[in-house]
Amino acid sequence: MSFTRHFHRGRDLARTAGDHAADVFAPLTVIGRGLRRHADWTKARWAATPKERRGPTLLVGAAVTIGVFLLPHGPLMALVALVASAAWAGRGPKSEPEPEADLADTKLTALYAALTPYLGGIDEPFALYRLDGEWRAAFSGWEFDPDGRLTALEISYPAYFTDTEPAARARIEQVVQGKAGRSREYRFDWDEEINRLRVSALAPLPADIVAQRFVTAPGEIVLGFTDGAGSNRTIPVEQGGATEQQPPVVWRVGPRSAEPHLLALGAAGYGTSTLLRSIALQALPHGDLVVVDGASTGEHACLVNRPGVYTVETSLHGALAALDWVAKETERRLIALNAARHHGVAAPADVTRPLWILLDHLTELSELAHAEGRTDPQELLEVPLRHGRAARVTVVFVDDLEARHRIAATVHACTRARVVLGPITSESGSAGLGVPLDIAPAAHTPPGRGYARIGTAAPVRVQVPVTVDPLDEEAPQALREAVVALLPHRDTRTEEAPSAGAEVTGAEAAGTEPDRAEVRLTKDHAPAQPGMA
């Protein structure tokens, strides 16, 4: 007989023996299951018995046990009764595990209870929100993700709730976000006509888009990227080694722009200087720059000695001289443009080429000017801000969120494009953007994350492209090279040294006319004072 036949015969014998053993031990299995259920019942009863009644219960139990043992054939009868009871209790199948509690019932009950003090009626027996109320009457259309987190919910609220007051709205939004989880952003859509609040969790924005040439028209600046609801277009971007379509936040500048100037506020370390570098890299191919670094941190030293960059100032004296020149240059451009229109000829190229004024933490220089009794640099911005759109002059004012009270009223009034970066509150968000924010920020905000508002449009989320300082040795090499590739010409600190004796001015490298304003840079990169043409 072959080994295979022996194996199959042995397997059949083992299977038959197992079936017979299961039949033989089936009664014991039933009795054992019943005893286990009796033990579980006893434990549950003992746990439910109050402590003051446990002593008398033990005494009664001991008396019954002694009485059974004293009866003739008592122990035998007790054993037979126990076995019969166990066989009866264990005759059913194994108990199924208890179903898990409904996720919606657990979480939405807690949210309903949290909203009751704010939306509940006073002495109203049939109020929508009350202590003994049912959450299903107030909530509808709820959705949860696979991790059990709330992603969408529609909340009904009573008609007497003051849904037109920002403070009342903020209070409800804070409660909802606290119960739904603060790790994500939530959009709150208040429908005042039918007293409904729609809550939706927002997916995180991509934070791995680095500096690159974006597919935009001249005069369009990509401030960052948002979600599909915040933009009506997409552009191709290099992301993670592949080309993806992402919706951008586009700021349009120029003589026909309704928002010619930008104000960006943010917390320290959350990307305001990164935003300014990103704007500078996009503006350089089509315009000229004047940069003032009021914090003197060297964040914009990579722009020094670049074609199209008139000057990069870090001192109060240099900032005052540069901004005074900007004011006079704005007036000169206006005069030249008006003369060209009067004579019906084309305007000269030196007055139609865009001029960008990039200001980083200028309020620090304003405080220094006040201490020294000198002119406030912000006063010199009045002419560029008020007449910059006609003169092709664009002002980008970047500062700390806590310094918004030190920013001049003219700057606030003329900067209709707003960006706020970093963690914010409802108060700081409204002050920075000009309107209440209908999005609840997440508890942890990555660098470059914030909100943007262009003109009178609704605020949208924004993630600034990663634009590191190429002179920062701690930044990843790949990110530094991406920024260097966008700079207009070689620089001795980041690339190979240029040929000896070659002195390049901003106007000459840009290929402009000789009569344009020039700012020559010394060998140690200290900018000279800008002069008039």
TrEMBL record:
Transmembrane segments: 58-88
Domain of life: Bacteria
Keywords: Membrane, Transmembrane, Transmembrane helix
Annotated Basic and acidic residues bias: 513-526
Keyword Ligase: no
Low complexity bias: start-end ranges: 500-512
Chain intervals for the UniProt region annotation (Disordered): 490-533
Protein's name according to its UniProt entry: Membrane protein
Species per Swiss-Prot/TrEMBL record: Kitasatospora griseola
